[in-house]
């Protein structure tokens, strides 16, 4: 198995031999499931996160910014989803619980807007959390956590805090600060409704 740092992605993409080849990224092992003979095939379809495509493209000035951001989001979201598995929630559900906890009565539309999540996705997660008994049934008056939901939100916050620190250490302060600057810049340019 190859342990890959930022500089090692081109080497990995050029050196993969075939089925079962593995590499390590963000504390997770990725196994290639298809026989590969060259870097082009690797870039197109062999990794669950398709990260090779984006990191190989980083070698030039013509990489796709949206593609890189989506790839990074998939990898990091996967880490967070794995961390919350023990609690029986996804990262999206844990985020909603942690967001509702300090502001009881928040409306779904507000969550959707502030978190930049499609209204239908918020609605699906809210309905599931209601069925699980984490959110009260009467959402017309806003969203309120049940006692069970409050306890779960607190456990999720503890998990999130530890994982966030781990990811910060792995990425480095400069990268995390750069990401914060980028997101702040992009979010302030969104059209006002």
From TrEMBL:
<feature type="domain" description="HTH marR-type">
    <location>
        <begin position="82"/>
        <end position="176"/>
    </location>
</feature>
<dbReference type="Pfam" id="PF12802">
    <property type="entry name" value="MarR_2"/>
</dbReference>
<dbReference type="GO" id="GO:0003700">
    <property type="term" value="F:DNA-binding transcription factor activity"/>
</dbReference>
<dbReference type="InterPro" id="IPR036388">
    <property type="entry name" value="WH-like_DNA-bd_sf"/>
</dbReference>
<dbReference type="InterPro" id="IPR000835">
    <property type="entry name" value="HTH_MarR-typ"/>
</dbReference>
<dbReference type="InterPro" id="IPR036390">
    <property type="entry name" value="WH_DNA-bd_sf"/>
</dbReference>
<protein>
    <submittedName>
        <fullName>Transcriptional regulator, MarR family</fullName>
    </submittedName>
</protein>
């Amino acid at each position: 198995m190859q342990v890959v740092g930022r500089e090692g992605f081109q080497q990995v993409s050029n050196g993969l031999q075939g089925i079962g080849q593995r590499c390590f990224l963000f504390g997770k092992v990725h196994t290639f499931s298809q026989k590969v003979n060259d870097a082009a095939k690797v870039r197109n379809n062999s990794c669950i996160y398709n990260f090779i495509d984006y990191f190989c493209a980083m070698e030039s000035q013509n990489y796709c910014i949206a593609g890189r951001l989506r790839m990074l989001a998939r990898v990091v979201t996967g880490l967070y989803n794995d961390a919350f598995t023990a609690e029986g929630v996804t990262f999206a559900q844990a985020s909603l619980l942690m967001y509702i906890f300090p502001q009881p009565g928040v409306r779904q539309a507000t969550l959707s807007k502030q978190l930049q999540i499609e209204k239908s996705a918020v609605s699906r997660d809210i309905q599931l959390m209601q069925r699980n008994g984490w959110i009260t049934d009467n959402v017309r008056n806003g969203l309120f956590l049940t006692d069970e939901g409050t306890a779960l939100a607190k456990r999720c916050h503890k998990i999130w805090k530890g994982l966030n620190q781990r990811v910060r250490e792995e990425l480095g302060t400069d990268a995390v600060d750069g990401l914060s600057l980028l997101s702040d810049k992009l979010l302030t340019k969104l059209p006002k409704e």
